[in-house]
TrEMBL record:
Belongs to the UPF0149 family. SUPFAM superfamilies: YgfB-like (SSF101327). This is UPF0149 family protein. Transmembrane segments: none annotated. Pfam families: UPF0149 (PF03695). It comes from Marinobacter lacisalsi. It comes from the Bacteria.
């Protein structure tokens, strides 16, 4: 996994997550787990590796002790998820706004991509609510409006597959969510103030 969020990287990301979920016999959606992680991070939470792996196990549907025993599970699962956490946080923190949602690429069926987006948004809303709690009620109006829009997006179940207008709408909604996530992250993760000593120019 690389630091860049180019379309090809996003494909590799989703395929990697999806393959791992299949090998774990998970019934949940990888996009929903990624959304949940982004929701927590965007709301200002940070998870140490044991806590993050607990979240992963709960989402996939395995007991944490099963992960420790390694029974019938991909041995690279802990390392893969630790790296996924690190890369996700880096992309959210990046100033180039290249962060991307973990979603299937365009060669997947329209319904699969729509359902993945809804799953991602559901995860994001849940993760954000868990991390932010009452702080959400104090968020600016635009953030609260965004949350209302996301709730509606998370409840979308189907649309007119194959319709060019529906394809464009899916692209637009995905971009709206992506930029919204960056806005939430910016709101709840202000940059650390520079100390006077750090602000001085050394010669």
């Amino acid at each position: 996994m690389t630091d860049n969020a180019e379309p090809g990287t996003r494909t590799a990301d989703f395929e990697g997550w999806a393959n791992l979920f299949t090998r774990c016999r998970a019934f949940s959606h990888p996009s929903e787990l990624h959304g949940g992680l982004c929701g927590r991070l965007a709301a200002g939470a940070r998870l140490d590796q044991p806590h993050w792996l607990e979240v992963v196990c709960e989402h996939i549907g395995i007991a944490p002790e099963t992960l420790e025993q390694g029974e019938d599970l991909p041995p690279e699962l802990p390392e893969f998820m630790a790296e996924a956490y690190r890369q996700t946080l880096l992309r959210l923190q990046a100033t180039d706004m290249a962060f991307q949602l973990l979603l299937p690429e365009d060669d997947y069926a329209f319904e699969q991509r729509l359902q993945a987006l809804a799953a991602w948004v559901r995860g994001f809303l849940e993760g954000m609510a868990l991390a932010a709690g009452e702080k959400l009620g104090e968020a600016p109006d635009e953030i609260r409006e965004l949350i209302e829009d996301m709730v509606a997006i998370s409840q979308v179940e189907d649309s007119d597959a194959g319709d060019e207008g529906a394809e464009m709408q899916l692209i637009d909604i995905t971009e709206y969510v992506r930029l919204g996530v960056i806005s939430v992250f910016t709101e709840f993760n202000p940059p650390a103030p520079s100390s006077p000593a750090a602000a001085q120019t050394l010669h």
